Write a sequence for this structure.
């Protein structure tokens, strides 16, 4: 069972969702959510700096034991995917600077863990977070809600990933 807290991140350049979940007892609880927005008129390096600063500040304030990040999906828009990959890079840098391990999860994996359905819509994910998993205060803002889902996915999947790695190492 996952103990401690996790920072979930839904990366992007225009908006980044952040959420910290803790499991002080048996049920996870939502500790913090935020949506970081960067102005489109800022040069990309400055936008990435703001994302890095927000993630680093969240880590410093909430002291999670790990960071869980949703991976980039490479669709037809490679320019957009490259920008999200850069944003993911500054998230990984903030985690590394804090000495935290990072786990990455594909969107399908997150939706399956939270809803049981790989193609669940955003409103279904939010409803499952509240109803099925009993989380209170799940934000309506999509990026922050996705960050909550990523963090919960890590709580649900981390033990299985650890066991799988141990078995593969033998």
């Amino acid at each position: 069972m996952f103990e401690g807290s996790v920072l979930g991140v839904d990366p992007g350049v225009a908006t980044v969702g952040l959420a910290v979940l803790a499991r002080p007892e048996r049920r996870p609880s939502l500790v913090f959510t935020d949506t970081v927005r960067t102005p489109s008129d800022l040069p990309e390096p400055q936008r990435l700096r703001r994302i890095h600063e927000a993630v680093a500040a969240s880590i410093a304030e909430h002291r999670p034991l790990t960071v869980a990040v949703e991976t980039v999906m490479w669709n037809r828009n490679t320019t957009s995917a490259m920008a999200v990959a850069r944003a993911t890079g500054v998230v990984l840098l903030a985690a590394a600077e804090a000495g935290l391990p990072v786990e990455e999860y594909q969107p399908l994996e997150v939706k399956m863990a939270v809803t049981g359905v790989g193609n669940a819509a955003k409103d279904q994910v939010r409803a499952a977070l509240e109803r099925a998993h009993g989380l209170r205060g799940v934000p309506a803002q999509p990026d922050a809600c996705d960050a909550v889902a990523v963090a919960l996915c890590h709580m649900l999947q981390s033990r299985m990933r650890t066991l799988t790695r141990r078995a593969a190492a033998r």
Summary: The radius of gyration is 15 Å. The first strand starts at residue 4 and ends at 10. Strands lie at 4-10, 15-23, 29-37, 66-70, 102-105.
